Amino acid sequence: ARAVPLGFPGYPAPLAKVPAPPPLLYFRGEWTEADANAVGIVGSRACSPYGVKVAGLLARGLARAGFTVVSGLARGIDGAAHLAALEAGGRTVAALAGGLSRIYPPEHEDLLAALLGHGGAISEMPLGHVPRARDFPRRNRLISGASLGVVVIEAAHRSGSLITARMAAEQGREVFAVPGSPLDPRAAGTNDLIKQGAA
Prior knowledge:
The protein has 199 residues and is an alpha/beta fold.
């Protein structure tokens, strides 16, 4: 892992332009100039098969179109998006809430190892930092800040993915939401985003 201060070569240009960008980022893998064309994909950890399928379709399509897929390495939608981007031969970047030597969830260590050759991982936390609940909203602003826009797939009313969508809007990014069944509480937040004007 290496540390890259704000304003130095290798710091993600889109993230450098958001309000109060992290003064220091830790990297594994590589952030390239091509990664400036990135789209964030986020959603529920306890997602439905529909959510996993849509995440895969979108991530594969974006990767084949030359976009880097950014997500949070979490269970559910995040993991499906990273994996689909890799399967399509594309690039993907994981933003972590904890330090780069404290992978969460631990069962995604193999997924992280696979994506390091086709993108990388970023965190603003020191290497050994154990992620806490309050660290995840900070991580979410890395996802939105490093992306041109954010796609939310399945988010309940109190989902952390809605925090990512709000931060994306505050950062001047595009916000997209995938509609879901009005009977599924996992889609309540995304359906509300669409009512509020998300594409």
